[in-house]
Amino acid sequence: xNIKIMPLMAFFLISCADFSTKVRTPKVLTNTKTxxxxxxxxxxxxxxxxDKVLDLNYQFIIKNISEKNQYIDLANxxxxxxxxxxxxxxxxFESDEKQKSIKIDDSIGVVCKSKIKSNAQxxxxxxxxxxxxxxxxxxxxxxxxxxxxxxxxxx
Amino acid sequence: xxxxxxxxxxxxIVTANSDVAASMAATAALTGGAVYxxxxxxxxxxxxxxxxDWKDNNTGMTTVLTNKCDVNIEARILxxxxxxxxxxxxxxxxxKNITIKPYKITAEYSSGRxxxxxxxxxxxxxxxxxxxxxxxxxxxxxxxxxxxIEWIDLTIPVLIGEKNEACNLKAKLKRNLKLxxxxxxxxxxxxxxxxxxxxxxxxxxxxSEKFYQSQNNFSIDFNMYFWKTHGIHVGINRGDxxxxxxxxxEQEINASDNVDLSESFTMIGYxxxxxLSKKYTLFWNAxxxxxMLENLNFDNDKREFLDESILTPYAxxxxxxAFFRRETGYWMGDWFIGGALFYRQIPxxxxxxxxxxxxxxSLLFSFRMAL
Lengths: 155, 371
Prior knowledge:
- The complex is a heterodimer.
- By secondary structure, chain A is mostly beta strands.
- Chain A contains 1 helix and 12 strands; from the N terminus they run αββββββββββββ.
- In chain A, the strands form 3 sheets. In chain A, strands 1, 2, 3, 4, 8 and 10 form a 6-stranded antiparallel β-sheet that branches. In chain A, strands 7-6-11-12 form a 4-stranded antiparallel β-sheet, with no helix packed on it. Chain A has a two-stranded antiparallel ribbon with strand order 5-9.
- Chain B is elongated and about 90 Å long.
- The two termini of chain B are 19 Å apart.
- Chain B is mostly beta strands.
- In chain B, a hairpin with a 4-residue loop joins β5 (106-109) and β6 (114-116).
- Helices cover 14% and strands 53% of the residues of chain B.
- Classes of the chains: A mainly beta, B mainly beta.
């Protein structure tokens, strides 16, 4: 074996390192009159796309900044990919419940999950397709988180 | 990781030249180390590094949210192997631009310490236009100060609008007291290190005692710590064997002025370390290496392998003193000097009537750079 093979070997090692494609989410830090909301950004890496299936695990935190206890109902949440509507399963972090009351100044974590296969209708396989999470906090109010597909091997 | 190890082993099997084997092992290790180092300091990884014992049971995060003067603040506590940091997001919901002076942000620990965030550059004001959110990471000094603390009070002074109306935002990060404090949240681990060592053999067994006791050594060791304080060691040891005290040996190899002996030992094995105090760290490694003794004749430029063997055991125990430590900038890292006891077993082989080889112990002076 010749010493000239070293750069090739180094290149081969780097090429074989563990790189994978991930979808990232923009930072959300916003408030309504009632809630202060932030997304975790630790978990966008779980929104992996394998075999053209978006495996979405979204996590965020809600703080009650109103002057009274708030009843939260996550049951009516849904997901939009372009103009197509999909189910979005949301529950509280520490339990699988969808309804809960949170006290003044208390914070609570919310986890939303969905698995969507790319097809010609939802255009999810096209770069820059908008994905919107509509998370219901009660019958009248929803929080909306949005991002775009941008990963190369998705195309 | 498995791939890197297999390449290192493969490099030994297919080659008959010790220099090339050593170079390949070092190249593979350094390349793997570089990939690992890049991955370990990527910004992306930071947000995944929330301290487990600071995560709230209700949210699953270390996040604390606060809202005052129409400015939203999110703070999170993060930690890597080497340091802890605070992640900030600041959202401007006022109708005016706001300014934050980073050097005025303070973190008061429950232990009573008051800290500002470290910066190795001239710190500029952070200007946030209305309706914008900015995020960033502020690094904290000395991770070991986290031992035993239960909360951190953050104070973030904000200046609003052209009149610089002052508003002090406060956020309290709390450790989850229902959990035992994790050692990882206050222990400073090394990621990788490179050591240069030089010194004589101090003990040798068998008939070759005199020969090996006249020998000096030069070693390069490279360690990557994948599992907290445990990792992989790759090293090269070169022995100077020009001093030929054994007559039979000289006769056997037809030594002359134009003949040079070269001994090399390429090592791969386990590496570990333990920080005994802020200044002293104990390092150790053990594994198997390939030993090679070559006779290079300069007259005809030919190499002659007098002895070679693989799977030869070695071990090192080393005590180092950290004489220089810097968290950021060009000279970032821990710099050590120390002393090492280096044991290796040289395989038996006969030169004339003399049986060479045996257990050899070296005392080496070490200079180590660690990240």
